[in-house]
Amino acid sequence: MLNAVRTTILLAALTGLFMAVGFVVGGTAGMTLALGFALATNLIGYWNADKIVLRLQNAEEVDRYRAADLFEMVAGLAGKAGLPMPRIYLIHSDQPNAFATGRNPQNAAIAVSTGLLRFLEPREVRAVIAHEMAHVRNRDTLTMTLTATLAGAISMLAQFGLFFGGRSSSNPLGPLGTIATIIVAPLAAVMVQMAVSRTREYEADHDGAEISGDPLALATALEKISRMSRQFENPFARRFPGMAHLYIINPLAGSSMDNLFSTHPNVENRIAALVRQAEEMGQTGRGRPSGAERRDRRARPAASGASWRVPGTSTPPEDRPRGPWG
User: Fold this and answer.
1) I want to staple 59 with a disulfide (CB 3.0 to 4.6 A). Which of 8, 54, 146, 231 is the partner?
2) pTM of the predicted model as reported, rounded to 2 decimal places
3) Are 34 and 149 in contact (CB under 8 A)?
């Protein structure tokens, strides 16, 4: 509930910023034109988001015959979350990561990397998928499309001001005020957009832990993914950095602090919240690794007793990642 209130407040702030910038820079006509154009482009992206994102990530769809264990796990979590069965995609990347996309629960898709299946234990994979299920259930794609629409409209108004000098007859700030608005407004819009993204990640952590029933598994998964994101490069995210916010952990290995321009919360803050949630649920038997253990532990595949294997793909056998999961 707290995160929902925060999201509402941030969206209201973004809307208010748009109205203010439109009044100062573009006037009524410029404000309407900017909002209309931004809304149209984002609706097109929203309607085709799953196809665009999955194609750019070179993701490959798998089914129950090629990935029986993974399919059954996703199906079980979808049932617990009260959601239709999403499509499942595999990303050929050694970096462990995952994301969800799709305009609504009926058209959702969950993509996991081959590295996620290689390096994480099955219970951690399950927790990560539950996190992505929470994004689908909370319709976070719709929320982020709305914020992108408003942020894009604000940026367009700033461009109008740059080219036309904020010549609205109702502009009370004069030329210097217009210039300041042109510079500050897009930065403020981006900060609010990133704050909404971070809020949705905290919410998905909490709800995903409830779906999986194992907050500590998600905590250890986040720690592993965060650490390994600095050891393995994600070539698709490097090529299209604008999609980094989709992943459960920033695939570009950004700053270690919760700064204003970060799309993801600081991983230690997320782990601490999950540990508190586990304590509230009475789960104390599976403690998180200590700081020394996390520093000393090297990236390694999941235990050799894991029963899963990375699903067979069209990738030539000699190029496929090796390990107990495939």
Assistant:
1) 54
2) 0.72
3) no
Distance CA 81, CA 66 (A): 24
**Of 229, 230, 225, 215, nearest in space to 272 by CA:** 215
The tokens describing 214, both together, are 């194992």
Residue 266, classed as helix, strand or coil, is coil
- Report, as residue numbers or ranges, the catalytic residues: 132
The span from the CA of 172 to the CA of 189, in Å, is 21
| CB atoms inside a 10 Å sphere around CB 299 | 15
Angstrom distance (rounded) from CA 269 to CA 259: 12
Residues 70, 308: contact at Cβ < 8 Å? yes
The residue type found at 106 is Q
| Sites in the chain below the pLDDT cut of 50 | 166, 169, 254-258, 260-261, 289-300, 303-307, 313-326
Helix (H, G, I), strand (E, B) or coil at 274: helix
CB 100 within 8 A of CB 204: no
d(CA 46, CA 215): 31
- Tens of pLDDT along 188-203? 666 666 777 788 888 8
- pLDDT of 84 reads 95
Residue with tokens 């649920």: 281
Amino acid type, 278: A
* Sequence-separated (6 or more) residues with CB below 8 Å from residue 208: 127, 130, 131, 132, 133, 134, 218
Tens digit of each residue's pLDDT (9 = 90 or more) over 295-316 = 444 444 554 334 455 565 444 4
